[in-house]
Amino acid sequence: MIGERLIDLRKDAGLTQTQLAAALKINKHSVSAYEREKNEPSDAIKIAIAEYFGVSVDYLLGLTDDPRPYDASAAVIRLPAGLPKQALASLRDYAAYLKAKYK
Asked: What is the pTM of this model?
């Protein structure tokens, strides 16, 4: 999965493999091997790729389709255990209402 995501990110940024390799301080052959999934980048390189493109490592690995990196400063509310899935739509609606009310 990382190969597909890396190709898409690199092409969307208009970069060649050589340019990306220079930005990551690795060689072009490594970028090519990652894209063809012949080699797995080290964790340090995965982090460097994620930071360079402003995506999450989870996105690179295919664990999520949301490319946005985790924001530790974002407010998080834990939902009660056993909350019915139907209630999520109501929560989203109420959050939108509150956002508009206090805008």
From this structure: 0.68
Rounded to 10 degrees, the C-alpha dihedral 67/70/74/80 comes to: 100
CATH of 2-61, one of 3.30.230.10, 3.50.50.60, 3.40.50.300, 1.10.260.40: 1.10.260.40
* CB distance 55 to 63 below 8 Å: no
Q: How do the domains of the chain map onto residue ranges?
A: 2-61
Q: What is the 3-state secondary structure (H, E, C) of 26-50?
A: CCHHHHHHHHCCCCCCCHHHHHHHH
User: What is the phi/psi pair of residue 37, to 5°?
Assistant: 60, 35
Q: Are 17 and 10 spatial neighbours (Cβ–Cβ below 8 Å)?
A: yes
Radius of gyration (Cα) for the chain, nearest Å? 19
pLDDT in tens, 19-29: 999 999 999 99
